[in-house]
Amino acid sequence: MDKPVVRDAALLVFRAVLGLIFIVHGWNKLMITGITKTTGQFSAWGVPQPKLSAWVAGLAETLGGAMLVVGILTTFIAGALALLMAAAIYFVHLGAAGVADLGTVGGNNVEFPLLLLVGLILIVVFGPGRASVDGVLARA
């Protein structure tokens, strides 16, 4: 299993799925839920500068997700999205006592953003793989 083609294929699939998840969540903030309602949610959660934060989160998730899918500036984008996920975990998914809401159905569960954070860290550590724009540019 430690063959370059298998590793690159796995990184491609992993990067594409992770990127699509971010695109969907960002698009939802920008176009489905809308910035006004997202700003209200961010305000209720105590996110600082809720309107600016809503725009930053929506645009970063949508554009950053697309960049992950194609693999351009991958480690930089994964690092930036990891910081965004860390902020989301801190401001949204931790309870008032600073304790994560683990496994509560319908609660602000921390498992999903934590999984996204770990996935982004893996991309920062292992890179995008050869099946990416970054990989093609590195070989050129």
From TrEMBL:
Keyword presence, Transmembrane helix: yes
Checking InterPro entries in the record gives:
DoxX, DoxX-like_oxidoreductase
Subcellular localization, per the record?
Cell membrane
Q: What GO cellular component entries does it have?
A: plasma membrane
Source domain of life: Bacteria
Membrane topology summary: Multi-pass membrane protein
Membrane-spanning regions, if any?
A: 12-32, 80-100, 112-133
Keyword list (alphabetical) reads: Cell membrane, Membrane, Transmembrane, Transmembrane helix
Q: Which family does it belong to?
A: Belongs to the DoxX family.
Q: What is this protein called?
A: DoxX family protein
Identify the species of origin: Corynebacterium uropygiale
